[in-house]
Amino acid sequence: MNDLNANTTQDVHIVKNSLTHLHPYKPPKWASSLKDIPQYFVKLAQRNTPIHRWHIPNLPEGFSLSIKRDDLTGSTLSGNKVRKLEFLLADALNKKCDTILTCGGTQSNHCRATALAAKQLGLDCYLFLRSSEKSTDIGCNGNLLLSKMAGSNIIVVPNIRYRPGLKKMIEKMAENLKQQGSSPYIIEIGASSYTGMFGYLTAFQEMIEQNVLEDYDDIVVTAGTGGTAADIAIANYLTGSKLKCHAVNVADNAVYYYDIINKDLRAVGIDVQAEEIIDVIDGYKGKGYAVSTQHELENIIEISRTTGVLVDPVYNIKAIRGMLTEMKNNPGRFKGKRILYVHTGGVFDLYDGKIASLMRSLQSTEKTKQVLYWGDISDPLPC
Q1: Which 3-state string (H, E, C) describes 89-144?
Q2: Helix, strand or coil for residue 260?
Q3: Is the CB of residue 57 less than 8 Å from the CB of residue 169?
């Protein structure tokens, strides 16, 4: 009985401590008429993330390019997902939930951010990670390393679609946890949901205050689950559609994304078609989602060497290649020549071993080595 009382007291302390993280949320004026506006958010992201010119290799003549650095929303919580998690985890805390369930690939940025943020808030976390291998031996590098270090409960599942297959598996686990006395909260794949949308509505207000509406004609973002692209397009529409929004598909096809965005528009209560507020750019997912070609990996190295900005192999490099190709071959697709690219993060994807292997190969063939040895100051200079 004493142990039970001690555990109960500890649980109450955790709940009270978690609730102290909640902050009242006030939406931007242009979003204040939306229904079901979240009451609270939790402070997770580092902001305002900067915008600066980006002198990227192979930029077509006549275009100017800048980058919104949402890879700098944090260190281990870096990337676009943390903005959405500020609202979703606040909702979980407000509902007195103690366990988070979500899903993604084995190198999911969303799952890594969710695992770490949940632990910071005193919440347990279950990650359903899709893998083509029927094994629990999925490695321990990149995002997966951080997810494991956060103490997440990891469940390896087949590489199936979220709806209806994977979602049903998560819901079944949630029901089982309820029967065991837990209070679970399910976060949709990629944190793409109505509540999560307010993360990028708030981010768009941040960009407005950074003069985006005056300084740029077009805004480009990658589309994985499609949530961030939809959120930016909705925010742009609500503020007068001054920019033209583009989303480069890296996982599915344009029909799929327009369907997702149209559902989001209906949920928001906006009577407009997705095709009218965002341009989904097809044809640049390469070999498939999360599958990289050597040329894509070489482009990552080229960009990092010339600009000092790291981009990931799953999302951003494919979107950037698509954007540059469209600028060159189909410039009329863009409203103007002043382009803003939103970097959605993903740096930990670079630690899965593929880039390291390519770097070793390149260094063995390059005339100028990047790594030199200098044993003592009395020795000749190593260059």
Answers
A1: HHHHHHCCCCEEEEEEECCCHHHHHHHHHHHHCCCEEEEEEEECCCCCCCCCCHHH
A2: helix
A3: no
Evaluated on CA atoms 70, 73, 75, 77, the torsion sign reads negative
Give me the DSSP letters along 169-226: HHHHHHHHHHHTT--EEE--GGG-SHHHHHHHHHHHHHHHHTTHHHH-SEEEEEESSS
pLDDT digits (tens, 9 = 90+) for 90-129: 999 999 999 999 999 999 999 999 999 999 999 999 999 9
Q: Please say whether the beta carbons of 186 and 216 come within 8 A.
A: no
Residue 10 pLDDT = 42
Q: How far apart are CA 195 and CA 42, in angstroms?
A: 13
Residue 8 three-state SS = helix
Asked whether the CA dihedral 188, 190, 192, 195 is positive or negative, the reply is: positive
Contact between 315 and 346 (Cβ < 8 Å): yes
Q: How far apart are CA 30 and CA 238, in angstroms?
A: 6
d(CA 110, CA 121): 16
Which whole-number Å values give the CA distances from 268 to 92, 114, 227, 265, in the listed order? 21, 25, 13, 5
How much is the pTM?
0.92
Output phi, psi for 247, to 5 deg: -125, 120
Instruction: Identify the residue whose tokens are 């009395």.
Output: 378
Active site residue 108: yes
Catalytic residue among 108, 152, 192, 193: 108
Q: What is the per-residue pLDDT across 165-196, written as a single tens digit (0 to 9) for each?
A: 899 999 999 999 999 999 999 999 999 999 99
pLDDT at 69 over 70: yes
In sequence order, which residues have a C-beta less than 8 Å from that of residue 108 and are 6 or more positions away?
Answer: 127, 129, 143, 147
